[in-house]
Structures are given as structure tokens and as C-alpha cells.
Specification:
The complex is a heterodimer.
Chain A lengths: L2 H6 E12 L38 E2 H13 L3 E2 L2 E2 L1 E5 L9 E5 L5 E10 L2 E14 L3 E7 L2 E7 L6 E7 L6 H17 L12 E11 L9 E6 L2 H20 L8 E5 L4 E4 L1 H6 L5 E2 L6 E2 L2 H9 L5 H12 L3 H7 L3 H12 L7 H19 L10 H12 L5 H14 L3 H8 L7 H14 L1 H8 L5 H12 L6 H14 L1
Parallel strand pairs in A: 13-14
Antiparallel strand pairs in A: 1-11, 1-12, 3-7, 4-17, 5-6, 5-16, 7-8, 8-11, 9-10, 12-13, 14-15
Helix pairs in contact in A: 3-4, 7-8, 9-11, 11-12, 14-16, 14-17, 16-17
Chain B lengths: L4 H10 L6 H22 L19 E2 L9 H5 L5 E2 L2 E4 L5
Antiparallel strand pairs in B: 2-3
The chains are: A alpha+beta, B mainly alpha.
Chain lengths: 490, 95
Amino acid sequence: MTEAIKTKYETVIGLEVHAEMKTDSKMFCGCAVVDSTSAPPNTTVCPVCSGMPGTLPVVNRKAVEFGMKVALALGCTINQTSIFARKNYFYPDMPKGYQISQYELPLAEHGQIVINTPRGEETIRVTRVHLEEDAGKLTHIENNGVSHSLVDLNRAGVPLLEIVSEPDIRSVEGARAYGEALRQIVRYLDVNSGDMEKGVIRFEANISIRPTGSEEFGTRVEVKNLNSFRTMERAIEFETERQARVLQAGGSIDQETLGWNEANSSTYSMRSKEDAHDYRYFPEPDLPPLVVDQAWIDVVRASLPELPRARYLRFKEEYQLTDYAASVLTADRATADYFEAVLEHVPTSVSPKIVSNWVTGELFALINQAGTGIEVIKVQPEALAGLVRSVAEGQINPNTGKTVLGEMFTSGRGAEEIVAARGLKQVSDTDFIARIVKDALDENPEEVALYQAGKESVANWLFGQVMRKAKGKANPQVVRAELEKQLTKL
Amino acid sequence: MPLSIEEVQHIAALARLELSEAELARYRGQLSAILDHVAKLQELDTADIPPTASVIEGQSPLRDDIVLPSLETGRLLENSKHTGQDQFKIPPVFE
């Protein structure tokens, strides 16, 4: 598609995000919530979540609490009375023939998420947050031309929070930023692992386009089953182009439900889901209204941690960090907590920026290499603070510091212990340094001559020679000063 | 106002019911009578009455987040004639 056509239309996106709640038991029964991608099939299923006649659902208090946490973190108003509703449709992953959800009166409404996009800061309004139950899992099997599907109900009845945005998103980048911000929030709140590969967060996108500058919305399509940020981005890109092409050719967009075909990177019409839009919602007769009183709301609100965006802004302001450093350090709570714990243990003479460089540079590199997470590494914040202090105070030089950190990472020993055991302590003794500088100059008369002939870059090479003689332990600043002194004296 | 035959067919399709011509005509009459009755109720002024979402008294009881034993897989699956690999086996579903 040409750039001209791209700028002619504006994409309008609303996202529905489904996030499983990390409770121990299911939404309406006591079956364990397990990893549905790895647990043996149909091992956490009971008469309630398999839809047997005569059973009754009972709401999980923790799921309500988790839902309220998310809603309050998004700045929503909690409805003190909300209503469960039956969403009727026949699909084999939903054994009851309906999903218990919320419709007319959801748990919470009217929130927002602030995101950064290439267009700047944008506020995306959240329409509603409601509680429902997840469906089971279907696997398609093809065997010698005969096919069938298998149903595993472990996931059926797992608490699910649906977060619906207004159609306020205007770009692929915005959609990703919104999705990532939401994922970050549910992880900060510890109500969802954020593990996309396990399908604990899923997206549906409502996508339309309109002539740039127009106030009216175009006809939208709904794309279901988007299980990763990448898939969501590609589906939005695909639909934007497809719809622009249709409109350019004088056609019109059909309002329809689409699926995403990963194999050929395109959307396809899910005709069988069209009828399903007629869900015939009605209040769930098995459940009286869900009531949360103000006292409970206050307790949940008081339990909220500092949220990602607030922390990101504070890190920039209070610690004078760059956008980049503040955003990677607050990407998850464990990293932000770690960074602040290190800061608590370094003297005030060490700037937060220096600590940030150690964490986002050397420490992240080691963590990535080892494929581990900051919450389980052997280097405790106090230990990293000790190392940073040793470097800042000149006991070891920065290069040695990196080596020492590598060893701390594998052995879990402290910086001082490693420095002492391996004799890595930095040498600042001027007599000793003067002697090795003199030796280096004596041993390299040709290079010295080059330097005297005006080739000043040779000084760096000579510096390297001196450091090598000192096995890297010499204080680089003292070496530089001494080298300069002796070279000018020649 | 009576329902159209098409509307009855649509409702039947949503409920996965296959109805004969005679049944379509019979249910059209029954469903229309129900809707007429509801239409009669609609004539009442209910502006000051909050909607009734439930006829059960009080509010939803809540349970603590405690795991209880589930059914043994074999017991669960014995409710179906078609099983395989510890799962319910059904005609192919693609979407």
C-alpha cells in the first residue's frame, strides 16, 4: 500500500483484553487453577465446572478482590452492586451451554490507561471491567484423513477478567503500548503471571478505518483469538490495509467477526460466530447480585502497590534517570524493587545513574545470558551495592568490577571476599605505578619515538601496556597522570 | 404481534433445535402468546421500580479461595460415550 493511501486513512482500534486471575481455585468451584498448557487433561474438573445438572456456582472472593485491584489500578469506579449474566452459546469448550459473565452491570466502569506512543502521551479510556469464567481447551486431531476434536475442561471455570477499552487507540504502536501497559499492571498487582505463551492474557481487537480528519467511525470488524502482541500487531496492520483497499476500490466494509490465520498472516471470516452474537443475555438465576461494600473497596485500594506509570515518572524525577532507564527499571516490580534496594545500600556519593548503569548494563547482561530472573539471582541488592561502592571508592577499577560481578553472579560470594581472595585490589601506589610506567617506556622505544614525532594516539597504546603489566589492577586515573608526566618529561 | 416463521427458525437454530413445519407453526403460536403477555406487562409504569435481577433474597455469598478435590478423570469421562486421551472426543471443530 502506498504512503499516500496510508495517510489518507486513520485506524481506530478498541481492545478487549481477557486476563486470567491467578487464584488458587476456580471462579465458581473449588477445583484447582492449573497451567492448562501442561497439566494432564481433565484432572481439575468437578460437577460444577463441567456443567452437570443440579449444581450451583459460588463466587470466589479472591477473584472479586483481584478484579477490584485491577479496576482500581485503572482508575475505575467500582459498582457496589454488579450482576452476573448468562451469555448463551453452544460451543464444545463451554459445557453448560452458557458462560457466566457480567453484562448490564459490570464490576467496574470508567477507567483509563496512559501510554507513550510515537505521537506522544495518549490517554486510552477503559469502558468496563467485568468478571467471567474461562472456557475449556479444544485440540484438533487429524488421523489418516479422519478428524475429531478433544475437549479438556481444566481451564473451564478459571476466573477471567475482561477489560474493554473505548475505541481511543489510533495506531499499531498504541495498541501494543496499551496491551503492554495492561500486562505490566496485572503483573505489578500479582493477579496474573503475564505469561503470554501460556495464554493467560488474550486480545480481541475491534478495528475500523476512516478518512483522516473525519469524526465519524467507519464500520468495524472484530478480530478474535489474538494470543500475542505480535499477532495483534499483524492483525491490525492486515485489517488496516485490507479495509483501505476495499474503500479505495469503492467498496464497503462488512461488520463481521474475523479470526486470525497465523499460517498465511491474514484474517478470515468466522461465519459460525455471527449467529453467536445473539447471546440472549439474561441475569444469572443461580447467583444473586454481587455486592462489595465501601469498606472492602477501601481495603483493596489501600493494598495497591505503587503502579508502573507512577513509578516510572518518579524514577525519572527523583533519580534523574533517562526515559529508557526509567522504563526498563520499572518494567516489572521485582526489577524496580531490586534497583531501589541497591540504592538504599550505597553511599549518597554514588548517584542513582551509576547504580542504574550497573543494573541495566552488566547485571541485565548476566541475567539474560543465564536465562534467569532478577528475583532468583544469587547477587543480593546489598552485595551489588558493595561492589558499586568498591568501584566508586577506587578499591577496584571498573573493569575489574565487571569481572568480580560475574563471579558474584555464579558463586553468590560478596565483592570484598572475591577481591581479597583473588588479589584484585586496585593499586594506587604512585611509586609502584611510576616504576611500571618507566619500565613500559623503556621497553618500547620505537613507540615512544612515534609519540615524540607527534603521533599522540600512541599514548593510549602505551597505557594499555602499563595496565597489562599491572594485571589490570592499577588505578587507571593514576596511570594516565603518571604516563602523561613521564612522556612530557622525555 | 405474532412472531414470523423466520424468527422462530432463528431461535430454534440458536438452541440447536430442528423443528418440523408443524412444530414451527405450533411454537410460533406459543411463543407469540408469551410475548403478547410480556407486552401487556410493559404497559405498567415501572419507572420508579428498580429492575429485578434476581428473585433470590440478599446478595451473592462468597467462598474463600480454597482448593477442593476434583472428580477423578475416569469418573468425569464416564459421562460420555466418546473419549480418548483422557478427553472428551467430539466431531471436528476448526474455529
